[in-house]
Amino acid sequence: MRHRTGSVQVRGSVGLYGVGLLFCGQAMAACSVVSTVPASFGSISSMTVRTAAQTSSTTNSGLSCTSALISLLVSTDHFYATITSPQTGMVGPTGDVISYTIYGNNSTSYPITRGSQFDFGGAGGIAQSIGLIAGPGAKTVPLYLSSITGSNVAAGVYTETLSIAWVWNYCSGIGLGGICLGRDTGSGTASLTVSMTVTNDCQITAPNISFGSAPVVSGFTAVSGQTINIACTKGSAYTVGLSDGQNPVSVGGRRRMVSGGNYLAYDIFKSAGTTRWGSVGAARRASSTAEVNPGNGLGNGSQVYNYNAKVYTDQPTPPAGTYLDNVVLDVGF
């Protein structure tokens, strides 16, 4: 009897051991809150921030899950995220704010409302599409961001720290017959830093200068009442310079137009005066000297600089022709 009993025990052990292997083979998924990967919009000019939406993303918003060999999310499985912050967007050094929208996937179909639970889980949810517990290896939940246009802001680094409260409850492994082997439940909070660096920029409107036609140098009429309009980053102090053109006189610095090998000297002067507008030192114009809206840049408004130009009459009249020059306007911050 002992031998027969032993045989029964051995066969029973084999059967139980086999079942044990089957169940152990079904790896159980498990989630945890981990450190996030910061989201950065990079370095963007202030004009671009105001006029065009910028995008960013993070590959890891704080929830990491290991996979199960057999898993299938159903409608009762949930991965909730509640995003909050004491700010309303990224805040810069002067208190300006850049607002942005957070999305649950790489489209505008799943916007996330701050302060409200957003579910990444369930049958057909985002968690399923990114293979959060389907493997192989550990997976994290990405987030996608898009800035909102219209922000007129100063240059600087803009940041916001989001608090993301995670709560999850899902079937972490499936056994024979589709039986749920257990549920993984938990919660935790992660911090995600979002940033953008705004750089100084300007939009410049500068008309061409035309002296018209004349038979002799004394016949050219001076150009007056023309303006250069410049819209620069909000709060930026800057200077405006005009280059000496392509053919300056080496001594005296006069600008010259050229036609073939012949020259016609001229110059450009600040406002309505006789002070030459140049590109170096005091020859430049500061934003505080603008005729309209003097001071630092406005961002969404122009500052106006008056100038006049004339052909020098103390030069011989050159041969007939069309005389041209190119002058570079530069803005320095």
Relevant terms:
5-stranded mixed sheet, Immunoglobulin-like, 5-stranded antiparallel sheet, mainly beta, 333 residues, rod-shaped
> Quick check: average pLDDT?
90
The CATH class of the largest domain, by name, is Mainly Beta
Could you state the order of secondary-structure elements as H and E?
HEEHEEEEEEEEHEEEEEEEEEEEE
Which bin fits the share of residues in helices? Answer: 10-25%
- The CATH architecture of the largest domain is Sandwich
- Major sheet: 5 strands, mixed
**Total helical segments:** 3
Question: How are the secondary structure elements laid out?
Answer:
Blueprint: H1 2-25, E1 31-33, E2 39-45, H2 46-51, E3 55-58, E4 63-65, E5 78-84, E6 90-91, E7 97-98, E8 100-103, E9 111-112, E10 117-119, H3 126-129, E11 139-140, E12 143-147, E13 156-174, E14 180-199, E15 202-205, E16 223-232, E17 239-242, E18 255-259, E19 262-270, E20 285-286, E21 303-311, E22 329-332
Parallel strand pairs: 2-14
Antiparallel strand pairs: 1-4, 3-12, 4-11, 5-10, 5-13, 6-7, 8-9, 8-12, 13-14, 15-16, 16-21, 17-20, 17-22, 18-19, 19-21
